[in-house]
Design brief:
By secondary structure, the chain is an alpha/beta fold. The chain has helices at residues 37-50, 84-95, 122-131, 168-178, 198-225, 258-270; strands at residues 2-7, 11-17, 24-31, 73-78, 100-101, 111-112, 139-144, 147-153, 158-166, 233-237, 253-254.
Length: 273
């Protein structure tokens, strides 16, 4: 089995996959905070025990089990450099092996045509790797999280451009911190496009503004990069996507675990002869 770890700005998502079937067997989240590698190891160990998933140092009798019956490999994707070595250390304690890291130099199955390919986030690389299982290129991958990212992959399987926007929560927090008379509000979209009070007006501006931005980027990608009748695949993920996807003019297919699935597919790609 394979443990995929996605270190994000707000949380750390973990998924256990069967290598042969690619099925996710367990999913859990950890808080993204400064802790020792030993503390993260204990947390991972506790969650794996909860799901009855054995690993080389679980204390479970692994004798007689084939390699697919226990967790023996790990892959890590991170956008938080300070937490990366901690989770890599914890994963190494868990499996006895150096985990694979989603980084420059690994096989991805697609090209990157950007000025600084090494700066592309590991989450974006993972998302695109998974999106090929659901969409034929050209396609857009939308990730609505702490930041909102919009990535475009051409029919030739080349990542040719990315847009990064402040996420919904980040936009809200920036307003509250900068405008003394504004109070915190929920992320629920108001029933009308324009608000009738301050609460509704803030929600309209942040949420509807995000919707317009996503639809605008998709429209312009179609106009700039695609032939007139060419189809554009639309794939979405991210914990905050539910606040905007139902209201976008463009219909995205949503995949909750896209990043973890992409990590799994990248690990298999790099460990298949």
């Amino acid at each position: 089995m394979l443990l995929a770890i996605d270190i994000g700005n707000s949380s750390i998502s973990c998924g256990v996959f069967a290598k042969t079937t690619r099925e996710m067997l367990a999913y859990f989240k950890l808080a993204a905070r400064q802790a020792s590698a030993e503390e993260y190891y204990l947390l991972l160990h506790q969650f794996l025990s909860l799901y009855a998933i054995p690993h080389p140092f679980s204390g479970t009798q692994n004798a007689g089990l084939d390699s697919g019956a226990f967790l023996d490999d790990c892959v890590v994707s991170s956008v938080v450099p300070s937490l990366t070595p901690l989770l890599i250390g914890a994963a190494k304690m868990l499996t006895g092996k150096e985990p694979m890291q989603i980084a420059q130099g690994i096989r991805t199955g697609f090209g990157i045509q950007l000025h600084n390919p090494e700066q592309v986030g590991a989450d974006i690389i993972s998302n695109i790797a998974a999106a090929f299982a659901y969409e034929e290129p050209p396609f857009v991958v939308l990730d609505v999280g702490t930041a909102t990212t919009i990535s475009f992959v051409t029919a030739e399987r080349i990542l040719t451009g990315i847009a990064i926007l402040p996420g919904l929560s980040v936009s809200m927090e920036a307003l509250f911190q900068s405008a003394a008379l504004l109070n915190e509000v929920s992320l629920e979209r108001p029933t009308q496009w324009l608000g009738k009070n301050t609460n509704e007006s803030v929600r309209s501006g942040v949420i509807n503004g995000h919707i317009f931005a996503v639809d605008g980027f998709v429209r312009n990608i179609r106009e700039q990069y695609l032939a007139k009748e060419q189809k554009l695949g639309l794939c979405a993920t991210g914990g905050l996507a539910r606040y905007i996807l139902p209201y976008c003019r463009n219909r995205f297919t949503y995949h909750k675990d896209l990043t973890l699935e992409g990590e799994m597919r990248l690990w298999l790609l790099n460990h298949t002869k």
